[in-house]
Amino acid sequence: MMDSLEKHVFICDGICCVKKGDAHEVIAAFREELKATGMAAKIKVSEVRCMSRCADAGSMVVYPEGVWYQGVSTDDVREIVQQHFIEDRPVQERVAYSLSEEGKFVRSPLFPSDETIV
């Protein structure tokens, strides 16, 4: 099964993401939308404990690209599935960080911050 995966999505279900971002509903919405679009066999969704990005709640990261999303709600699910997962264009309005060619995480210019990712 892992050979057929195109993407692996990690969605934070830590306390901040549950309170601010309705993480459990977001996880369920992604799974439903992936089934509806026929992408469920190609994209794995995993719930993970705190990703230490509470300021970015609801946090999620998409690999292999290394795109970190912030503030994801159920309202964003359909757009992320269509635009990022199907069309391979991350939804820039929700991207907090992305992985550079050098392997470093770069903060999105839409969300400037002095924070450092460790």
Automatic annotation (TrEMBL):
The keyword Transcription regulation does not apply. Gene3D superfamilies: Glutaredoxin (3.40.30.10). InterPro entries: Thioredoxin-like_sf. Keywords: Iron, Iron-sulfur, Metal-binding. It comes from the Bacteria. GO terms for molecular function: iron-sulfur cluster binding; metal ion binding. The keyword Iron applies. This is (2Fe-2S) ferredoxin domain-containing protein.
